[in-house]
Amino acid sequence: MTEELTPLATVKPKQAGGANQLLIDLGPILIFVVAFNVLQRIEATKDNAVYIATGIFIAAVLTAIAYCKMKSGKIPPVLIVTGIIVVAFGGLTLALRDPTFIQVKPTFTYGFYVAAILFSLAIRQNVWKLLFGHTFNLPDKIWTILALRWCAFFVFQALLNEYIRLTQDFDFWLNSRPLIVFPLTIAFAALNTPIVLKHHREESEPSTATPPH
After folding, report:
1. Is residue 102 in some structural domain?
2. Is the distance from CB of 170 to CB of 50 less than 8 angstroms?
3. CB 196 within 8 A of CB 61
4. Which helix (H) or strand (E) holds 190?
């Protein structure tokens, strides 16, 4: 999920690559943070640091997408959604010269995930299972519990992002991503790891869930 992280990337009993996925998720936003902090300290780029860094951020996300395509032949649905949102909000930031758009991007992203989870549960097609069913083999009840837990966490993250955005300057907001948001997400994923490992079944069972497109 780029800066939102792939929630189950740290534990993958069916396949290796959790660390690689974390790099893909974390890489673009870390590049964004580093680029901004470096550019802001250079007199020639200081005034436009946020916009140059935003352009680098967009390029980094598109590079991550291209890497996934070349590496595995397919692009994770979550990364596709992230790419579209980053390009859209990053593009608005550059076009309108307003960093507010890139700041509200996480809030919009979290809101999108919350809506997707709740809608999928309402129509009995758990999006959490659709996204991560290839990695874990869990009972439907556990998939529902995980989906609702992450839904609540995304609501919390959206509110946190808005609080920081509205009460702090851009520097603090951006640097809070790796210093506050990432650790919280990883900690929450770790808290959910026991239930995943406890209920994961090695033998796959037939599923009636519609595969992701």
Report:
1. yes
2. yes
3. no
4. helix 182-199
Average pLDDT of the segment spanning 48-58? 96
**Phi, psi angles (nearest 5°) of residue 100:** -55, -35
For the four alpha carbons of 95, 2, 156 and 138, in that order, the dihedral sign comes to positive
Give dist(CA 23, CA 116) in Å, integer.
Answer: 25
Residue 207 within a domain: no
In 3D space, the residue among 11, 27, 29 whose CA is nearest the CA of residue 138 turns out to be: 11
The sign of the CA dihedral 41, 24, 157, 104 is: positive
Q: Find where tokens 């991550």 sit.
A: 64
Tokens read off for 34: 């580093």
Kindly give the residue spans of alpha helices, DSSP state H, lying in 40-137: 49-72, 77-96, 100-122, 127-132
- Residue position matching structure tokens 């640097």: 175
pLDDT digit string, tens, across residues 8-41: 544 454 444 455 666 677 788 899 999 999 999 9
pLDDT, one tens digit per residue, over 138-175 is: 899 999 999 999 999 999 999 999 999 999 999 999 99
Cα–Cα dist 50/40, whole Å: 8
Can you read off the two tokens belonging to residue 137? 């083999």
How many structural domains are present in the chain? 1
Is 209 part of a structural domain of the chain? no
Q: Is residue 44 part of a domain?
A: yes
Token reading at 142: 């556990």
